[in-house]
Amino acid sequence: MENSLFPKVDYLRISITDRCNLRCFYCQPSGEVPIFHPHQILSYEEILQVVQAAAKVGFRKIRLTGGEPLVRRDLHQLISRLLAVPGIEEVTLTTNGVLLEDLASSLFTAGLRRINVSLDTLHPLKFYRITGNNFFHRVRRGLEKALALGFEPIKINMVVIRGINDDELEMFARWSLATPFIVRFIEFMPIGPRNGWHPSKFVSIAEIGSRLNNLGTLSPLAPVASDGPAQVFLLNSSGKIGLIGPLSHCFCQSCNRMRLTPEGRLRPCLLSDQEIDVRGLLRGNGSEDDLVRLLDQAVLTKSRPVRSLEQWPQSGSRGMSRIGG
Ligand code: SAM
User: Fold this and answer.
1) Closest residue by Cα to residue 191 from 273, 117, 92, 124
2) pLDDT digit string (tens) for 41-90?
3) Rounded distance between C-alpha atoms, residue 66 and residue 69, angstroms
4) How confident is residue 317, by pLDDT bands cut at 50, 70 and 90?
5) Which residue in 43, 18, 14 sits closest to 295, CA to CA?
6) Residue ranges around ligand 1 (CB below 6 Å)
7) Given this model, what pLDDT does residue 237 score?
8) Class in CATH terms, 11-155+251-323
9) Per residue in 13-43, pLDDT tens?
10) Where are the domains of the chain?
């Protein structure tokens, strides 16, 4: 049964680990975020069971994220098995790119094509300041490798934070003119405990758009499903730019996604702490039918809180690295 007022919920974002090899100050700052014990997080077998049931409920698209998904061993095996699940049409990945150079070939061979790479700065020193690590050049090499192998599209996700990296908007936009990368600018969200969010650090996509107008013409492209919540523009008829404004443009009404946390909690809404314990069912002899019923119920009762900027919860109990950004 579906609620026809809203789009079909067919997109599951799975955080396969809360571990990360970066320590971005706004996401998983050094020493601040407890890490799950390996037996707490879902095994690949368990993730597959969830996806098989999800496909029966109508989920078609899977995104693997984290933490940093590439730190989990043998990811290519999970990807090829997920792609073989009847009903699953697409498996995509969000990564910080640090391990991409080493793993891109095995991921490509497994069937992965669409990747999002998070990169908040094009300056190596600033990369160190934001992430606590010196891996800027590794990420750049990973991107080159992914391009050479034929991954497409490769989207670059940049979280814009005033006073930190908003001076690089034009540089990132120019990058989209010189490469096939789709550069997406994302509003900084007040998610997770002590993530440093403050109104003074927030840059709206309206402001980003107007600052990019200095570079030339931004022409809106007709929306396609793979844009997700991004508004996509052509810059000077060649560069592709995405603007993602979760705070200034509430997209709850068009939300088609749910999240699965590393330890097996289903989160129907990013902004709500409502969670459904899937691992308990998996490890307590629940049948596939039980799992299908649980997922079906979650889809039916998915909340869609319409929020303006002022109504956003300040923080919440989990940061992005534990939810799956
Ligand atoms: N490690 C992978 C990566 O870096 O892409 C996947 C997980 S990471 C949590 C996913 C994305 O969430 C990154 O692009 C990160 O910048 C973004 N993110 C984390 N905290 C955020 C926040 N408070 N506001 C906006 N984006 C955030």
Assistant:
1) 273
2) 999 999 999 999 999 999 999 999 999 999 999 999 999 999 999 999 99
3) 5
4) low
5) 14
6) 20, 26-27, 65-66, 68, 94-96, 118, 157, 159, 186, 188-189, 191, 195, 320-321, 325
7) 87
8) alpha beta
9) 999 999 999 999 999 888 766 789 999 999 9
10) 11-155+251-323
